[in-house]
Design goal:
The protein is about 35% helix and about 20% strand. By secondary structure, the protein is α+β, with helices and mostly antiparallel strands. It folds into two domains: about 5-75, no CATH class; about 80-140. It has a three-stranded antiparallel β-sheet. Strands 4-5-6 form a three-stranded antiparallel β-sheet. β5 and β6 form a beta hairpin. α2 (about 80-100) runs parallel beside α5. It is elongated. The chain starts with a strand and ends in a 14-residue tail after the last helix. About 15% of the residues are buried. The mean pLDDT is about 95.
Length: about 160
């Protein structure tokens, strides 16, 4: 996901990050180095060296910091990003379970009622077009129980 523009809001002590479909805030407190009143941000820009997937800021002292779009999305708990993160973690777990499973891939494919190509798409951690259901079905075939735990955030 690329960043279209970035500006600073010193009142809110945050960067305003404009994406294709929305604008999100990212607080100074989550950056490193941390801007202060003695060492404020004097410049910020979408960084072409990051493929426009991040921005760089410069403090008065000359120190620089970089923030990736993933950090902004995670801080703002973007639902699509959180879904993709869950899908990524489940896929990595499925890959580990398949590597240690005694079941033949043909048997896994048969039990999933799918094709070999589809199994490899499910196992591709960069494929976000698949559904969480498909990965859960694969984990079920691999004799795994998946529990979803919802808990209050810790400070």
């Amino acid at each position: 996901m690329t960043i279209r523009s970035v500006s600073r809001n010193n009142r809110r002590k945050s960067f305003e990050v404009r994406l294709a479909s929305k604008q999100l805030a990212f607080p100074y407190a989550k950056t490193d180095p941390l801007p202060t009143t003695d060492d404020p941000v004097v410049r910020q820009f979408v960084d072409p060296e990051l493929g426009r997937e991040g921005f760089t800021y410069v403090l008065r002292s000359g120190r620089t910091g970089t923030v990736h779009v993933e950090q902004v999305l995670e801080y703002n708990q973007d639902p699509r990003h959180m879904r993709d993160l869950l899908l990524y973690r489940l896929t990595l777990e499925a890959q580990k379970r398949i590597a240690s499973s005694l079941l033949a891939k043909r048997e896994i494919i048969r039990r999933l009622e799918t094709s070999p190509a589809q199994l490899y798409r499910i196992l591709d951690q960069t494929n976000y077009a698949k559904s969480v259901d498909q990965v859960l079905a694969l984990l079920q075939v691999l004799d795994c129980d998946v529990d979803l735990v919802v808990r209050a955030k810790t400070a």
